[in-house]
Amino acid sequence: MADRQEDQEQQQQQHGVQLDHDQFCCSVCLDLLKDPVTIYCGHNYCRNCIEGCWDREDEEDGEVSCPQCRETFRPRPVLRRNNLLAEVVEKVKRMGPAAPACAGPADVPCDFCSGPSPDKATMTCLTCFASYCPSHLEPHYSIPALKKHRLVAVTAPIQEKMCTKHNKLMEVYCLQDQQLICSFCTANEHKHHKCVPVAVLKDKTKNQLVSSRKNLQEKVQQREEELQELSQAEDSLKCCAENSLKDCDRMFADLISSLQRRRSEVKQLIKVQEQTAIAQVVELQLQLVEEITKLKEKDAELEQLAHVDNFIYLMQIFQSLSTSCDSPELTPGPLRSLSDVTDCVSELRDKIELVLKEIWPRITATVSYVDFSLPPAPNTREEFLCYYLPLTLDDTSNYPYLYLMDNNSRIKPFLIISPAHPHRLWRR
Fold this sequence. Notes:
Layout: H1 2-14, E1 36-38, E2 44-46, H2 47-61, E3 64-65, E4 72-73, H3 83-94, E5 123-125, E6 130-132, H4 134-137, H5 139-142, H6 144-147, E7 151-153, E8 172-174, E9 179-181, E10 195-197, H7 198-305, H8 311-324, H9 339-368, H10 381-385, E11 402-405, E12 410-413, E13 415-417, E14 425-427
Antiparallel strand pairs: 1-2, 3-4, 5-6, 5-7, 8-9, 8-10, 11-12, 13-14
């Protein structure tokens, strides 16, 4: 059975099923998980590693946290073994140790690796003042004397944590000079300064870090709310601009339509007046032609009488002819010009231009002013009343026994007479 399982594992490796060694390392000891447990936030640790971290925290206030995401738990969770993860770790162990990672430019090299390419250091011993890769760190887990050494995860070269003057670990913080110093510095240069151990400031710094993070998260939440309000203001502005464009187009279209209608009316009136005046002129022309014909006929008769010798007969006939020659005046008066209409239209144009000159600056100024600033939250009754809007009820979805009144702003119930008790009025 064991041989079959090994064959299956070999086949998986041959088909490319590889397990990453670093994915199953504890973030505290940086080694493969031993007796792995999973806490509530989902991170995995060695049981001894996480219990050791929580034992130091639990002594203070009974609250523990995840070393990776810093999520806090109260009360202290009960740890349970992650059986599935333990089986995967065992498979990783059987696959052999992972190839050591060479130290890059940004990594801390192992102090005990020989050769031109040392491996990447994962832990620093504050007792030995040296950094170790996983292979050279193994004696610190197996030799009893080395187990008592203080191991911390590598964050920077150990030389940066040493006092350059005394070559000692800087474990004291000078409050006056605000710098890390070693124990020898407290007896010399910082003798009369107020100094505290770094371990004492750890909890204070941690609390300040938690407080700063909380303030930062609150600020992020506030900025996210402001961003959401700005997005809503942007949507509202777009909707308002679209509605304003539609309203302006409609009103300008109405104005243009009104002017075009008035222009058509004026043109029609001018044409009607032109046709009426032309008809009168034609009628007068016909009358004048007829009158001229009659006058010419009388002129011909007078010419014939000029050759008559009987003077008495001539006087009698001429008297009647001179009487009949009188005719009414048919000559039309001075024609009235249509320039008066042009003057009226010109006056209308000038008045419209004057109104545009007076109103247009107000329109452009109103359009140009767009306030993106967010108004402060209302605190007083007067500030709340700035957002007051009258509410109206929908008569299409009205309950049948309710009566809307005061422009659909109030409701009055109907009074119904009960058939069983006619003397009672039921209010619905």
